[in-house]
């Protein structure tokens, strides 16, 4: 029988801080599945897109490119076309019954500009599908969780350099899409303990600056209470990262978080400076924290399911899913 879809999670009343709950997982992909590629954020280099599509075809997938993927905004060249066009591409791809997954071409900037233009009622009526992206796509991961109740994949994008160049990144995504039971335990050998402990919760998170930017916006998640929070970022110097984490702390958004897994901090300055900020801002929460787990803007970017119950263990420095990422 088909999995019953939950009611969308709406913002809680003032003062109420519900625990992060498991979300509806989409079905795994089969050989020959049609997957749509969209560009919700920044402009996409055509040659990189072609290379990424070739990789997908090599996995026996049938990729189709949404109409506005190669557009550039007429005035703001950091955007892949107009906000409404990008939102329409995502909505139409999701609502196409022949499409089994929606993959983002790249991150960059702009997902926050179009997220409220997506037809979320239509998304809910169409049911869950695989959705993959990271970086600026964090704004959409949060929207799928809160406004549709769907689990998503924090994973590499079709035209991103890491996906094109790193076999381990490719294999992590491919295995998650086709044989998700084979990738239940996640983490690279680089992972280390920042704060010891063991915790169970539902995964959420992504790019920390996008999570902070989401605070107080319509339909924002009220808190990370009870969740296993995944955090990473790119291009944020230590003092800016300090400001972002302090904002999350002051807002109460981190109150009651069960544990924290940290990914990469590319172009954020010397790691010892970043680590000092992470220790200072997160160490006082009294929860397990694992650093350098291997996701985000790194040379190898593991695919991390969001909205799935898991255990974070600092003895093994791993994140182990209670169930496969996809059904």
- What would you call the structural class? alpha/beta
Number of contiguous helices: 10
Strand order of the largest sheet: 6-14-13-8-9-10-11-7
Estimated share of beta-strand residues: 15-25%
Shape: globular
**Mean of pLDDT:** 94
Distance between the termini: 12 Å
Largest sheet: 8 strands, mixed
> Using DSSP, what is the number of strands?
14
Q: Spell out the helices and strands N to C.
A: EHEHEHHEHEHHEEEHEHEHEEEE
C-alpha Rg (nearest Å): 18 Å
Helix content: 25-40%
In short:
The protein is of the alpha/beta class. The protein has helices at 46-58, 83-95, 111-114, 120-126, 138-148, 161-165, 167-178, 208-213, 238-250, 271-282, and strands spanning 34-38, 62-65, 101-104, 130-133, 152-154, 185-186, 192-195, 198-207, 227-234, 259-266, 289-291, 304-306, 309-313, 318-321. An 8-stranded mixed sheet has the order 6-14-13-8-9-10-11-7.
Write structural notes for this entry.
There is one protein chain. The protein is of the alpha/beta class and 327 residues long. Helix content is 29%, strand content 20%. An 8-stranded mixed sheet has the order 6-14-13-8-9-10-11-7. The protein has a 6-stranded mixed sheet with strand order 2-1-3-4-5-12, with helices on both faces. Helix 9 (238-250) packs parallel to helix 10. The chain is globular and about 50 Å long. The two termini are 12 Å apart.
Comma- or semicolon-separated keywords:
alpha/beta, 327 residues, 6-stranded mixed β-sheet
């Amino acid at each position: 029988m088909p999995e019953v879809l939950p009611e969308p999670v709406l913002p809680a009343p003032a003062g109420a801080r519900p625990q992060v709950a498991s979300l509806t997982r989409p079905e795994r992909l089969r050989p020959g599945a049609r997957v749509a590629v969209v560009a919700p954020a920044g402009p996409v280099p055509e040659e990189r897109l072609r290379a990424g599509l070739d990789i997908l075809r090599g996995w026996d997938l049938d990729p189709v490119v949404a109409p506005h993927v190669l557009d550039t905004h007429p005035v703001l060249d950091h955007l892949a076309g107009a906000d409404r066009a990008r939102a329409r591409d995502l909505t139409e791809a999701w609502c196409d019954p022949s499409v089994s997954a929606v993959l983002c071409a790249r991150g960059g900037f702009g997902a926050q500009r179009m997220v409220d233009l997506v037809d979320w009622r239509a998304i809910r009526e169409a049911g869950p599908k695989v959705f993959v992206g990271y970086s600026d796509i964090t704004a959409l991961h949060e929207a799928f969780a809160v406004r549709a109740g769907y689990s998503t994949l924090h994973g590499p994008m079709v035209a991103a350099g890491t996906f094109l160049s790193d076999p381990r990144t490719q294999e992590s995504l491919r295995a998650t899409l086709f044989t998700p039971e084979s990738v239940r335990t996640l983490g690279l050998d680089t992972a280390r303990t920042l704060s010891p402990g063991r915790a169970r919760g539902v995964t959420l998170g992504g790019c920390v600056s996008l999570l902070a930017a989401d605070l107080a916006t319509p339909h924002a998640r009220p808190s990370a209470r009870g969740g296993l929070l995944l955090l990473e970022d790119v291009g944020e110097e230590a003092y800016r990262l300090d400001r972002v984490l302090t904002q999350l702390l002051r807002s109460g958004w981190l109150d009651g978080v069960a544990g924290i897994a940290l990914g990469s901090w590319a172009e954020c300055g010397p790691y010892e400076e970043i680590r000092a900020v992470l220790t200072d801002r997160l160490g006082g929460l009294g929860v397990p924290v694992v650093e350098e787990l291997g996701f985000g803007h790194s040379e190898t970017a593991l695919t991390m399911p969001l909205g799935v119950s898991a255990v974070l263990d600092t003895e093994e420095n791993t994140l182990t899913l209670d169930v496969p990422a996809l059904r």
